[in-house]
Amino acid sequence: MLLQTRKNVEVCGEAANGTETIEKAKLLRPDLVLLDLAMPEMNGAEVASILKKMMPNVHIIIFSMYSENIGRSLTSAIGVDMVLSKPDGMISLMKAVDDVLSPGQPG
Description:
Layout: H1 18-28, E1 32-35, H2 44-54, E2 59-64, H3 72-78, E3 82-85, H4 90-101
Parallel strand pairs: 1-2, 2-3
Helix pairs in contact: 1-2, 2-3
């Protein structure tokens, strides 16, 4: 709900697991996908890698309790735009969404 309060954001779908995320992304073609590392069926890193191959221009933010488990080299190899820790909170997430969707603009 909080994401829908942003002027530049329209939530077009939600998914319960990695497989569903990929299927919905194929159908909906979002500009940004928000993932967790700990997801059923496929983890967020696997999903991000598949999405980047299918849709190279999609932006991906990983928002996870386990953000320290994903290194910078893996992040850049997959093509993830940002990795955020859930303890950083929703304000950090909202700023990251603004920054990714409007690079160079004040967030």
